[in-house]
Amino acid sequence: ELDSANASGMGFYDVWNWHTNGTLYEYQAQISTVYGKNVPGAYSEEGKEWHKELLQVIETNATYAVNYIKEHFEGVNVSMSDGTYVIFVDNKEWMEKHGKTQDELYNRALEYGVGWQDGRGFGGMTHQRINLAQPTWRVKEAMDRLDKYVFNAQW
Predict the structure, then answer these.
(1) Residue environment code for 1-33, b if the CB has 16+ CB neighbours within 10 A, otherwise e
(2) Which of 49, 87, 92, 126 is the most buried (most CB within 10 A)?
(3) Per-residue pLDDT tens over the stretch 54-104
(4) Alpha-carbon distance 137 to 60, whole Å?
(5) 127-131 and 13-20 as β-strands: parallel, antiparallel, unpaired?
(6) Helix axes 136-145, 45-72, angle to 10 degrees
(7) Would you state the torsion angle of the CA atoms of residues 82, 102, 21, 30, taken in this order, to the nearest 10 degrees?
């Protein structure tokens, strides 16, 4: 069963990849709508409380991810976004410094279990999108993997 942070997709297809014993597994949970069976009615008291908790999780995750990226990933730029559960990460400086392409960066993260979205479809030729509408432990795990295996690793 999905918890409130996972059920926030509004039709978003959430993909989470993780790496175990050298084998890449993929976990996929399709969320049909915010108003699906896993989410309390939007106008009920329970729904209001769920929405309030969801916003707190997203705010916590956004603050954590943005601060982590700024502190640990030299040449990667990000800023807080208002009204969304996705951050848009610009990797242009990092890619130029390390001689990597958008595809190489995207695939390296996937190889080590970080499911992020290529930003080219959203006008960001050197960007990735990171979904923050998920449990905080997932955001922390993703930042740790990006740190160890992507942005601060030799490859």
Answers:
(1) eeebbbbbbeebebebbbeeeeeeeeeeeebee
(2) 87
(3) 889 999 999 999 999 999 999 999 987 788 899 999 999 999 999 999 999
(4) 11
(5) unpaired
(6) 20
(7) 50
Report residue 135 as tokens.
Answer: 């449990």
Q: How many whole angstroms separate alpha carbon 26 and alpha carbon 36? A: 23
Planar angle of CA 65, 33, 81, nearest 5 degrees: 30
Tens digits of residue pLDDT in 118-139: 999 999 999 999 999 999 999 9
Cβ contacts of 81 within 8 Å, gap of 6 or more? 62, 87, 88
Element (H, E) at 35: none
Q: Are strands 86-90 and 127-131 parallel, antiparallel or unpaired?
A: antiparallel
Helices and strands (H and E) in the chain: how many:
4, 5
